Amino acid sequence: MNIISPSILAADFGNLNKEIERISEAQWVHIDVMDGHFVPNISFGLPIVSAVRKLTAQVLDVHLMISNPLIYAERFVKAGADFVIFHMESDDDPKEVIRAVRNAGAKVGAAIKPGTPVEVLYDVMDSLDLALIMTVEPGFGGQSFLFDTVPKIRALRTFCNENGLNVPIQVDGGINLETAAICAQAGADVLVAGSYVFASDDVAAAVHSLMHL
Ligand SMILES: O=C(CO)[C@H](O)[C@H](O)COP(=O)(O)O
C-alpha cells in the first residue's frame, strides 16, 4: 500500500477545516511552505502548520521551499510538523539542517528539484527519514508531471537496496492515477497529490485509488 499525502496547496483555504476532513482517508497531509525567494511564489507558513496540527492527528510532512531552512526548522517542528523536508539546493549546509530538525524532535527529509542529479542525495541518505524527488519544478500546483524524473526514482531505490537503507522515497508534482503508478513502479513509497485529490468529487475514492494502485 502506498502512503498518500494530499498537498493542501490545492485546498480551499477558506474552508480548511472541511478540506482536512475531506482528506481524512489519507495517512499524511503535505504542507508546502514557499518563501518567494527559493521559489517564485509565496504560499503560507507557521500559522497554517499550527492550524492543521489542531485539526488532525494525521502525519504532517512540511515541505520547506525556502532558502534558509536552518533558521526555521525548529519553529516548524514546534508548530506541529512530524517531518520537516528541506531542499538540498537551499543556502544551508544539509548536515546542519538535518541535525537541527532531529534535535527539535521531528523526522527529516531532503528534497531535490527536477534538474538536480540524484547523486546529491547519496551523501546524506543514511541520516534521512525521507527523500523527496520533485516531479515538477517546485513553486506551483497543477503542473504536468516531468517524465524525465522517473530514472532518478529508480536510481535512488537501487541505491537504497544496495546500501541496506530503508528510507521512504516521496514524489511530488503532477501525480494522478497514471503518473502515480509509474512512480510506484519505479520505487516511490509516498505519493503527494494536490490537484488530483482536491479536484475530485469523491476525495476518499481518489485517495484510495492512489493507495491501492
Ligand atoms: O510542491 C508542490 C509545488 O511546488 C506541490 O506539492 C505539488 O505541485 C502538488 O501539486 P499537484 O499535485 O497539483 O501537482
TrEMBL record:
Class in the EC hierarchy, top level: isomerase
Pfam families: Ribul_P_3_epim (PF00834)
Encoding gene, per UniProt annotation: rpe
Cofactor note: Binds 1 divalent metal cation per subunit.
Protein name: Ribulose-phosphate 3-epimerase
One GO MF term: D-ribulose-phosphate 3-epimerase activity
Co-factor(s): Co(2+); Mn(2+); Fe(2+); Zn(2+)
Function per UniProt: Catalyzes the reversible epimerization of D-ribulose 5-phosphate to D-xylulose 5-phosphate.
GO biological process: pentose catabolic process; pentose-phosphate shunt
Binding site for a divalent metal cation: 30, 32, 63, 172
Family: Belongs to the ribulose-phosphate 3-epimerase family.
Residues annotated as the enzyme's active site: 32 (proton acceptor), 172 (proton donor)
Pathway the protein acts in: Carbohydrate degradation
Keywords: Carbohydrate metabolism, Cobalt, Isomerase, Manganese, Metal-binding, Zinc
Reaction equations catalysed: D-ribulose 5-phosphate = D-xylulose 5-phosphate
InterPro entries tied to this protein: Aldolase_TIM, Ribul_P_3_epim, Ribul_P_3_epim-like, RibuloseP-bd_barrel
Domain of life assignment: Bacteria
